[in-house]
Write a structure and sequence with these properties.
- With about 270 residues, the chain is mainly alpha-helical.
- The protein is built from ten helices and two strands; from the N terminus they run H-H-H-H-E-E-H-H-H-H-H-H.
- A two-stranded antiparallel ribbon has the order 1-2.
- Helix 1 packs antiparallel against helix 7, helix 2 packs antiparallel against helix 5 and helix 4 runs antiparallel to helix 5.
């Protein structure tokens, strides 16, 4: 499998997972979207030194993956893309925040170490929550939710078109890449001297494809906005799920359950 084919497979994996039929997939998309937003806000709201308070929030993605029958491997592959950014931010804290907070034997635990682990945990939790939302909700349902929440139409349209035709762009690049290799069979990849011409040709072909797609959409009555048939109303199981999960998340934010359990055990 070529690198371009792997990229296409990576793009379509989560969309394929969203087509399953599990209790999580059957929940109303609006409810899942709102819960994910609340979860992100609560996780980000923790101070850098409140690492123990973040631990109970691990149960949300774990339970959602269990009830949604979501494999861990495709989520981890995408999560690794965001980790380098948080690692660089955390390393800077290790360098500049050297105040010693705790000494355990010969190990000095500094404020930078605490904030470093806090950034990593927040990154893992937030990225996993968003990936689980995508893996349990189709792109069409997510677009409908954004329209229902009165997001700007141009913003929704850009996301829709980018997500829909990114696969076509990769396929176009794959065709050009294989054509290049047929003309240079001894090369293992595109030479640096030819990269500019390759990207320029890809840009021109993308413009041409976009122009043809636009005219085809206009012929089918496209007027600059996305229209949906009226979706089903929020059912009672989704409402109950929203109330229960939101209440538990707020309780975990207000009460440090990890610290409380540690005191009870001691």
């Amino acid at each position: 499998m070529s690198q371009f084919q792997k990229s296409i497979y990576t793009l379509t994996t989560l969309e394929d997972l969203a087509g399953r039929s599990t209790p999580v997939h059957r929940l109303n998309p609006l409810i899942k979207f709102l819960i994910t937003g609340i979860y992100l806000v609560l996780v980000i709201s923790f101070a850098p030194d409140q690492v123990s308070g973040l631990i109970p929030f691990v149960f949300y993605p774990v339970l959602m993956m269990a009830f949604g029958d979501i494999p861990l491997k495709p989520l981890l592959g995408r999560m690794l893309i965001a980790l380098p950014f948080s690692l660089f931010a955390g390393i800077s804290n290790l360098i500049f925040q050297r105040t010693v907070l705790l000494q355990y034997g010969g190990l000095l635990i500094t404020q930078g170490m605490i904030s470093f682990f806090s950034i990593l945990i927040k990154t893992v939790l937030t990225v996993m929550a968003v990936l689980i939302l995508i893996a349990t909700t189709g792109s069409r349902d997510l677009i409908y939710v954004m329209i229902r929440l009165r997001c700007p139409s141009i913003f929704v349209l850009q996301i829709t078109m980018t997500f829909r035709y990114l696969e076509l762009l990769i396929e176009e690049a794959s065709v050009m890449y294989h054509a290049y290799l047929l003309r240079a069979p001894k090369e293992k990849g595109i030479k640096l001297a030819h990269t500019g011409a390759f990207l320029g040709q890809l840009l021109l072909r993308s413009f041409d494809r976009a122009e043809r797609i636009y005219h085809a959409m206009r012929c089918r009555g496209f007027e600059g906005s996305i229209s949906f048939l009226k979706q089903a109303k929020v059912d009672y199981p989704s409402k109950i799920f929203f109330i229960v999960v939101t209440s538990l998340l707020i309780i975990m934010r207000l009460i440090n359950i990890s610290e409380l359990m540690g005191k009870l055990i001691v």
